[in-house]
Design brief:
CATH class of the largest domain in chain B: Alpha Beta
Distance between the termini of chain B: 34 Å
Number of helices of chain B: 8
Order of helices and strands of chain A: HHHEHEEHHHHHHHHHHHHHHHH
Shape of chain A: elongated
Radius of gyration of chain B: 17 Å
Number of domains of chain B: 2
CATH architecture of the largest domain in chain B: 3-Layer(aba) Sandwich
Distance between the termini of chain A: 27 Å
Strand content of chain A: under 5%
Number of domains of chain A: 1
Helix content of chain A: over 70%
Radius of gyration of chain A: 29 Å
Largest sheet of chain A: 3 strands, antiparallel
Largest sheet of chain B: 6 strands, mixed
CATH superfamily of the largest domain in chain B: P-loop containing nucleotide triphosphate hydrolases
CATH topology of the largest domain in chain B: Rossmann fold
Strand order of the largest sheet of chain A: 1-2-3
Structural class of chain A: mainly alpha
Strand order of the largest sheet of chain B: 6-7-8-3-9-10
Structural class of chain B: alpha/beta
Largest interface: A-B, 22 and 31 residues
Oligomer: heterodimer
Helix content of chain B: 25-40%
Order of helices and strands of chain B: EEEHEEHEHHHEHEHEEH
Shape of chain B: globular
C-alpha cells in the first residue's frame, strides 16, 4: 500500500477508535450482529431437528399404515419437508412465509404449508431479527456515522486547509479515507464472519457449496456496504456542513431502505395482482370439471388419455380381454394425468405471477441498492422464492412418480380382487424415496442477475461520485 | 526568487479583492503584509496556497506557477494560519508525524520529531498529549514544528500571532526569525505593527486590494511605521 495512503487511513482509524461515541455505536452493531447470528443459528438448528423428526415420523407412518389398496394408500399419502439450509441462520429471506412441508396425495397437488410465520409468535411474524437485517439495515447507518464528516468535519475545523497545504493529492486522501472505512467495516465483519463459519460448523451442513455461497454473499455485502461508504464520502465532500451531510445520508438511507422497498412491493402488487387461495382453488375446481379451455369435460379428457395409455402399452384393441382391475388401474392413471395437467397449468400460472411480481420488485429495486442486496442475500442463502419453487417443482415431479408407482401396483397386482386387493408394508417400503438436492450457486445467481447488476451499478456510481467530488472539495 | 506575485488580480463576483498585486520575497527575507480587514492580505496568501484561482496574473513559488504546478509548489511551503487546526484526538507528535508524512518527508523518526517539537517550544509533557487539550499558543508551535520538520523553503503566515499572549507571541516571533536566518522566505499577513518591524525585512501596506506602500523594515522606526500605516489607512 502507498505509504501516504496508509498513513491517512491509519489517522482516520485512530480518530474513529478514539471517539467514544463511535466506539459505543460500533459495540452496539457488533453485539446486534452476533446476537442475531446466535438467534438465527438456534432457530435454524431447531428447525432442522424438527424437520428431521417430522420426516422420520412421516416415513414411519407411511410404512406402518397397514394393509390397504395401493390407490387408497395414494390417497392416504405422506408429507415431504423442505430442507433447512444452514445459511437460513444468516438470512431467513421469505422462507418463513412459504411453508416448510408439502402434503403428497393422489389427485391433488398441494401447496406448501406450515410456514413458520403462520405458527410463530407475533414478533416472529414481523420478519425477524437476522444477521442479514443487521447487515443491510443497521451497518449502513454505522458507515454513515463514520463517513458523513470525513471531508466536511475537516473543512469545518480547518484541518483540510492544513492538510492540502502539504501538497497531498486529493485522490490519495479519498482513498485513505475509503480504506479507513473499509478497515472499520472489516473490523465488524471479520469477527462476525469467523463466528458464522463456527456456527455453520456447529449446525453441521456447511459443505464447500455453502462456503462458496457465503463467500459470494460476503462479496455482495461488501459491495452494498461499500456503496453506502462511498455515498457518505460523496455527501461529506459536497455538503456545506457536516449536519447537512448527515441529514442527506439519513434521508438517502430512509429512501433506499424503507421507502423504495415498500414502493416496490406496492407497485408489484398493483401491476401483477395475485389470486387469493380461494380464487386459485375455484379456478382449479372449474378446470377439473370443464378443462382449461372451459369446453372439455373430465370424462372426455380422461377417455382420450385412457386411449393413449392403452396405445402406449399395445393394448389398443385388447378392450374386453383385459381384467377389470387392470382397466381400473389404467383409468386411475389417466385421471391422475388429467388432474396433473390441470394442477400443473394453474400452479405454473400462479408461480409465474409470483415470479413476475418479484421481477417488478427487482426493477423498482434498481432505484435502491437495498432491494438488490435483499434479493441477492436471500438467493445466496437459498431462502428466496426461486429456491422454494425449485423445491416445489421437484416435489411435484416426485409426487407424480409416487402416485404412478401405487396406481401401477394396483393395475398389476390386484387381479380379480380389484378394489378389494390389499397391499402391505413391502410395497410401501419399496416406494421411490424422496430425495432433494438444493440447486447450485449458478441457480442462485442466475435468478438475481438484475439485482446483481443493480448492486454493481450502485457501487460504481457511488465510487464515481466519491472520486469526482474529492477533486472539487471546497477548502 | 522564492515568492513572486505578478499583476495578481482576484475578483469575487463584482467584488475586487486584489487589483494587480506585485511582490517578491527572497530566501532569508520576511515580507510583512499590513492592512485593514478586507485589504486583500488573506486572499494573497490563499492564492499562493492555490486554494483560490487568480482572475489574472500569476503567483509563483520557487519560480513555479502555483496554478500550473499545484502539488509541486506546495512541497516547498508550510502554512500557518491564525489558528493552526490539528486533529484533537491525536497527540502533538502524531499530528506532526501525519502532516510530515503527507508532505512526503522521509525522516519520520520519532526521536527527530520529538526534537522538532521541543525546538518549536512545545513543553515535553505535552508532546504525547492529545491536541484537544492544547492552548492556541501550543497549537501554533506545532504549526512551526511542521514547517521545521518539512524543511520548508517558504513560510506563509496568516495572522499567526493574533490572539496569542505577549510571551507566546514573542516565542513565535523568535522561531520565525530563526527560520528566516536559516534562509526560509516568509510572507506574513498581520495587524501587528510591532512584530512586523521586529522580524520583517520588508513591509508592504495593502489597501483595497492594492499595495499602497512598500519599504524595508530597517528603513523605519516603530513610530514611523505607525505613522505611515495610519496615513495609508485614511480615506
Amino acid at each position: 500500500m502507498n505509504s501516504t495512503l496508509y498513513v491517512v487511513a491509519q489517522k482516520e482509524l485512530r480518530e474513529i477508535t478514539r471517539d467514544g461515541r463511535v466506539r459505543v455505536l460500533f459495540a452496539i452493531v457488533l453485539t446486534l450482529t452476533l446476537a442475531a447470528l446466535v438467534f438465527g443459528a438456534q432457530q435454524t438448528y431447531k428447525a432442522a431437528q424438527a424437520r428431521q423428526q417430522a420426516k422420520e415420523r412421516a416415513q414411519t407412518q407411511w410404512e406402518s399404515q397397514g394393509e390397504k389398496n395401493p390407490h387408497v394408500a395414494a390417497h392416504y399419502g405422506t408429507h415431504v419437508f423442505a430442507p433447512t439450509s444452514v445459511a437460513t441462520a444468516i438470512d431467513p429471506g421469505v422462507s418463513a412465509y412459504l411453508g416448510r412441508s408439502i402434503r403428497i396425495e393422489a389427485h391433488r397437488r398441494n401447496l406448501a404449508s406450515h410456514a413458520s410465520a403462520q405458527e410463530g409468535a407475533a414478533l416472529q411474524r414481523h420478519g425477524g431479527f437476522s444477521v442479514a437485517l443487521v447487515l443491510y439495515l443497521l451497518v449502513p447507518l454505522l458507515l454513515i456515522a463514520l463517513g458523513y464528516g470525513m471531508w466536511s468535519r475537516e473543512r469545518e475545523r480547518g484541518t483540510l486547509k492544513q492538510v492540502l497545504s502539504t501538497g497531498i493529492d486529493r485522490r490519495t486522501l479519498l482513498w485513505g479515507k475509503a480504506t479507513a472505512l473499509f478497515g472499520a467495516l472489516m473490523a465488524l465483519l471479520l469477527p462476525a464472519g469467523i463466528l458464522i463459519l463456527g456456527v455453520l460448523w456447529w449446525i453441521g451442513g456447511g459443505g464447500s457449496s455453502v462456503v462458496f455461497r457465503l463467500a459470494l454473499l460476503a462479496l455482495c455485502y461488501i459491495l452494498y456496504l461499500g456503496t453506502f461508504g462511498a455515498l457518505a464520502l460523496y455527501a461529506s465532500a459536497v455538503a456545506t456542513t457536516s449536519r447537512t451531510s448527515l441529514v442527506t445520508m439519513i434521508g438517502l438511507w430512509g429512501l433506499f431502505c424503507l421507502i423504495i422497498p415498500r414502493l416496490g412491493t406496492e407497485v408489484a402488487g398493483f401491476t401483477v395482482p395475485l389470486p387469493s387461495q380461494a380464487e386459485l382453488s375455484n379456478a382449479i375446481a372449474s378446470s377439473l370439471e370443464n378443462g382449461i379451455d372451459g369446453k372439455t369435460t373430465q370424462d372426455d379428457a380422461v377417455e382420450k388419455i385412457i386411449t393413449a395409455l392403452m396405445k402406449e402399452q399395445n393394448l389398443a384393441n385388447a378392450g374386453m380381454l383385459m381384467d377389470e382391475a387392470e382397466l381400473n388401474g389404467i383409468e386411475l392413471r389417466a385421471e391422475a394425468r388429467w388432474e396433473d395437467q390441470i394442477y400443473d397449468h394453474h400452479i405454473a400460472e400462479f408461480q409465474q405471477q409470483l415470479t413476475n411480481q418479484e421481477k417488478v420488485g427487482a426493477m423498482v429495486g434498481l432505484l435502491s441498492p437495498y432491494v438488490a442486496i435483499r434479493n441477492l442475500s436471500a438467493g445466496l442463502c437459498g431462502t428466496d422464492l426461486a429456491h422454494h419453487q425449485h423445491f416445489s417443482a421437484h416435489t411435484e415431479q416426485w409426487r407424480k412418480i409416487f402416485v404412478d408407482y401405487l396406481n401401477k401396483a394396483f393395475a398389476k397386482d390386484s387381479g380379480a380382487e380389484g378394489w378389494d386387493y390389499r397391499a402391505g408394508p413391502e410395497l410401501w417400503k419399496k416406494a421411490p424415496p424422496f430425495s432433494y438436492q438444493e440447486p447450485g450457486t449458478d441457480f442462485a445467481i442466475g435468478n438475481h442477475m438484475l439485482s446483481l447488476g443493480a448492486l454493481l451499478f450502485w457501487f460504481a456510481l457511488a465510487f464515481f461520485l466519491a472520486l469526482a467530488s474529492s477533486r472539487r472539495v471546497r477548502v | 526568487m522564492s515568492l513572486e506575485a505578478k499583476d495578481l488580480v482576484k475578483h469575487y463576483g463584482n467584488n475586487i479583492a486584489l487589483r494587480g498585486l506585485n511582490l517578491r520575497v527572497n530566501a532569508g527575507e520576511v515580507f510583512c503584509l499590513l492592512g485593514a480587514n478586507g485589504a486583500g492580505k488573506t486572499t494573497t496568501i490563499q492564492l499562493f496556497l492555490g486554494f483560490l484561482d487568480p482572475t489574472s496574473g500569476s503567483a509563483k513559488i520557487m519560480g513555479k506557477d502555483v496554478q500550473e504546478h499545484p502539488l509541486e509548489t506546495k512541497r516547498f511551503l508550510a502554512y500557518i494560519p491564525e489558528n493552526v487546526m490539528l486533529y484533537p484526538n491525536l497527540t502533538g507528535s502524531e499530528n506532526l508525524e501525519y502532516f510530515v508524512t503527507l508532505a512526503g518527508c522521509s525522516d519520520r523518526d520519532p526521536a527527530t520529531l520529538t526534537q522538532t517539537l521541543l525546538r518549536a517550544g512545545l513543553p515535553e509533557d505535552a508532546i504525547h498529549q492529545q491536541v484537544g487539550a492544547y492552548s492556541k499558543g501550543m497549537r501554533q508551535k506545532v504549526g512551526i514544528a511542521i514547517a521545521i520538520a518539512r524543511q520548508a523553503k517558504v513560510l506563509l503566515l496568516d495572522e499567526p500571532t493574533s490572539g496569542l499572549d505577549p510571551k507566546a507571541s514573542n516565542e513565535f516571533s523568535e522561531l520565525v526569525s530563526s527560520l528566516r536566518d536559516e534562509g526560509v522566505a516568509v510572507l506574513m499577513a498581520t495587524h501587528d505593527l510591532f512584530r512586523s518591524r521586529e522580524i520583517g525585512t520588508h513591509i508592504g501596506i495593502m489597501k483595497r486590494g492594492q499595495m499602497v506602500s512598500q519599504f524595508q523594515a530597517s528603513e523605519v522606526s516603530h513610530t514611523d511605521l505607525e505613522k505611515i500605516y495610519l496615513e495609508n489607512m485614511r480615506d
